[in-house]
């Protein structure tokens, strides 16, 4: 963690030089040069091996504490590439993973659609057989690194059998018939829409097996979900650090803010929740790495508690800072915009509660 945080402190200038809402190529290069991208794409023999969920959590927390833009760039590379790494054919892996790991190109994870968010099994993007390949027709929304990614892990419907009728594909960003537009978000990350107008992909581009793409998506999300909690923990810790530093020196009514129980006890509560969230995240990651079987409910608990805690931590930190924290460019104003989305993506908090509840009654 100390090495990650040391590296993270060098990245804000690179992040700030990027254009909001677009892929920051220099930041991807910097993440590769520091060795952090190499931590999640580990060379093994003639190819690459998946990293551990624990390593993902350590890196994402450390980056988030000091440079959320770098954390997001790192996470989007991993999320988009892992379906290719886990289920791609050797030629597909060899074509894309070395370039992604080197920070040379951006990659996107294309699951969500305008009409299918939390209910991702209701995908409508069609992949119709076409000779020895498929043609994809439909739309995707809220897609990472769109429309600038060089390749996307795309999930499309190949049969009308719910989640069992979905197939995953590696689709180049410059494929004929594929177009995209940017989406302006509260936090200026590279997110966009994609439109597939009869985009042809060969059979070799299938990730895993036909009609088994849902398993590819879930394998990826199960691995990354605890690290979303780690991202939240990093932001929560940054907010807590800022609040403690501010209240230690800031005076009101003739004495430091830290001497007011109404202030210090709020921060004590936040500190307790942040520590608990970190333990939940590490426990879920360790369980995943141990291969103990069904660990989805542990990941759901970690993501739910950590993201909700981060929202509270940032809100409390802003409250004890006062109006200055709402000024554009303040760390907490930045975190306030960053912290909201993790309670929605990769499964909203309500979905996480449903996963936990189902486990209770299994």
UniProtKB/TrEMBL annotation:
The segment(s) forming the Acyl-CoA dehydrogenase/oxidase N-terminal domain are 8-104
Key words, A-Z: FAD, Flavoprotein, Oxidoreductase
- Its domain of life reads Bacteria
Q: Which residues form a coiled coil?
A: none
Q: Which InterPro entries match?
A: Acyl-CoA_DH_CS (IPR006089), Acyl-CoA_Oxase/DH_mid-dom (IPR006091), Acyl-CoA_Oxase/DH_mid-dom_sf (IPR046373), AcylCo_DH-like_C (IPR036250), AcylCo_DH/oxidase_C (IPR009075), AcylCoA_DH/ox_N (IPR013786), AcylCoA_DH/ox_N_sf (IPR037069), AcylCoA_DH/oxidase_NM_dom_sf (IPR009100)
**The UniProt record lists the keyword Kinase:** no
* Designated name of the protein: Acyl-CoA dehydrogenase family protein
Q: Where is the Acyl-CoA dehydrogenase/oxidase C-terminal domain?
A: 211-360
Among Pfam families, the record links this protein to: Acyl-CoA_dh_1, Acyl-CoA_dh_M, Acyl-CoA_dh_N
Its taxonomic path starts at: Bacteria, Bacillati, Actinomycetota, Actinomycetes, Pseudonocardiales
Q: Where is the Acyl-CoA oxidase/dehydrogenase middle domain?
A: 108-199
């Amino acid at each position: 963690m100390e090495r990650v945080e040391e590296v993270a402190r060098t990245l804000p200038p690179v992040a700030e030089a990027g254009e909001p809402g677009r892929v920051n190529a220099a930041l991807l290069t910097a993440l590769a040069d520091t060795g952090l991208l190499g931590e999640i794409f580990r060379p093994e023999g003639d190819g690459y091996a998946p990293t551990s969920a624990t390593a993902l959590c350590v890196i994402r927390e450390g980056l988030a504490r000091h440079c959320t833009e770098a954390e997001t760039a790192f996470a989007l590379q991993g999320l988009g590439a892992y379906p290719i790494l886990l289920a791609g054919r050797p030629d597909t892996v060899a074509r894309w993973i070395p370039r992604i790991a080197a920070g040379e190109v951006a990659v996107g994870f294309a699951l969500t659609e305008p009409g299918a968010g939390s209910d991702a099994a209701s995908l409508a993007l069609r992949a119709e057989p076409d000779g020895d390949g498929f043609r994809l027709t439909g739309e995707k929304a809220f897609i990472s690194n769109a429309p600038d990614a060089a390749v996307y892990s795309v999930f499309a419907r190949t049969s009308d059998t719910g989640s069992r009728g979905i197939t995953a594909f590696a689709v180049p960003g410059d494929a004929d018939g594929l177009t995209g537009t940017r989406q302006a978000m509260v936090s200026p990350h590279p997110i966009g829409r994609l439109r597939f107008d009869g985009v042809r992909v060969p059979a070799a581009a299938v990730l895993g097996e036909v009609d088994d793409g849902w398993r590819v998506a879930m394998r990826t999300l199960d691995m990354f979900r605890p690290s979303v909690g780690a991202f939240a923990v990093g932001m929560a810790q940054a907010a807590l650090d800022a609040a403690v530093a501010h209240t230690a020196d800031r005076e009101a009514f003739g004495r430091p803010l830290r001497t007011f129980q109404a202030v210090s006890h709020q921060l004590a509560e936040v500190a307790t929740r942040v520590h608990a969230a970190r333990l939940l995240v590490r426990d879920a990651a360790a369980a995943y790495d141990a291969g103990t079987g069904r660990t989805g409910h542990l990941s759901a608990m970690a993501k739910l508690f950590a993201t909700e805690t981060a929202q509270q931590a940032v809100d409390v930190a802003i409250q004890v800072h006062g109006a200055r924290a709402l000024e554009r460019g303040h760390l907490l104003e930045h975190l306030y915009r960053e912290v909201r989305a993790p309670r929605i993506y990769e499964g909203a908090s309500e979905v996480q509660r449903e996963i936990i509840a189902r486990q209770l009654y299994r």
